[in-house]
Description:
Layout lengths: L7 H18 L2 H18 L4 H16 L6 H10 L3 H24 L2 H9 L5
Amino acid sequence: MSTYLDNKILFLIFVNILLLFMGMFMEGSATIILLDPILAPIAASLGIHPVQFGLIMCMNAVIGNATPPVGVCLFIGCGIGRIKLWEGAKKIAPFILAEILVLLMVSYIPALTISLPRAAGLIK
């Protein structure tokens, strides 16, 4: 994979698409457990900070938990609200789009995730 995705931007595009797709069909923590050992070393070799990459993976897992067809949080919310799944999916669509916008900002503007922990002296 690292031979084809030697650019940081291309790698992040691939990772976000892969994780969002996987999040639609798998539970978020299982996706992270399966893919992190494969993707984290490649991210580190491209110069992506581990804190930023971990946040990208967690945000993708959260978005995946709310998207159909296997969105666990969506199923629970629709069950509590006693509404149909697709009605709930339509109602949360603007929120999912906002989460994807924030995910893109975190992915492509590293200062958003790294500057505060670095200023506090928590990371190098």
